[in-house]
Write a structure and sequence with these properties.
Shape of chain A: globular
Distance between the termini of chain A: 34 Å
Largest interface: A-B, 22 and 21 residues
Radius of gyration of chain A: 13 Å
Order of helices and strands of chain B: EEEEEEEEEEE
Structural class of chain A: mainly beta
Oligomer: heterodimer
Order of helices and strands of chain A: EEEEEEEEEEE
Chain lengths: ~110, ~110
């Protein structure tokens, strides 16, 4: 069974569109994250949720809105997509908020044309 | 100054070589430290945690120097399968910060 899963794996869309990426973890973890990895391979945290509550919200455009319907899910909705949003987006989870191993999903490769 | 800085790489080494990576961090209050490995077009995966006393896992040795705020990873007897990008990760409270990664290629 996949521990952290993301859908879709690939997403190609045009500028201005709205899209969502879904993430689910079956590890029973309390904390989930979204990361963005750009073309230079730098992995940067975007959001962190603990028990469905937002605990980290980095400097991310408000076009990005995370939603956590329950502890096992953290979805990412992006409005008005821009070229610069092209990247790989990774979802991750950990047992608790600090100092614990993070388990990553396989990533969603977003290409905005 | 970046929060987590790593050797720029890439490192190209022959099989059997010993290779060392260094990583420095800016937040002296950082609490937890890790090395992750990321294969090409794959997700990062935990390689090992780094403890204050240093720790070893097979061919891999990690060390932490809090006074100088750096972490190191030593790989002995490199294998072809060690080829990957190695990410240094530093945690403070709720926040995990990743370094940009160091690419290692082990050649036959």
């Amino acid at each position: 069974d996949t521990a952290v899963s993301q859908t879709p794996k690939y997403l190609v869309t045009q500028m201005g569109n709205d899209k969502s990426i879904k993430c689910e973890q079956n590890l029973g973890h309390d904390t989930m994250y979204w990361y963005k990895q750009d073309s230079k391979k730098f992995l940067k945290i975007m959001f962190s949720y603990n028990n469905k509550e937002l605990i980290i919200n980095e400097t991310v455009p408000n076009r990005f809105s995370p939603k956590s319907p329950d502890k096992a899910h953290l979805n990412l909705h992006i409005n008005s997509l821009e070229l610069g949003d092209s990247a790989v987006y990774f979802c991750a989870s950990s047992q608790e908020v600090s100092g614990y191993e993070q388990y990553f999903g396989p990533g969603t490769r977003l290409t905005v044309t | 100054r970046k929060e987590v800085e790593q050797d720029p790489g890439p490192f190209n080494v022959p099989e059997g070589a010993t290779v060392a990576f260094n990583c420095t961090y800016s937040n002296s209050a950082s609490q937890s430290f890790f090395w992750y490995r990321q294969d090409c077009r794959k997700e990062p995966k935990l390689l090992m945690s780094v403890y204050s006393s240093g720790n070893e896992d097979g061919r891999f040795t990690a060390q932490l120097n809090r006074a100088s705020q750096y972490i190191s990873l030593l790989i002995r007897d490199s294998k072809l399968s060690d080829s990957a990008t190695y990410l240094c990760v530093v945690s403070y409270n709720n926040d995990m910060r990743f370094g940009a990664g160091t690419r290692l290629t082990v050649k036959p």
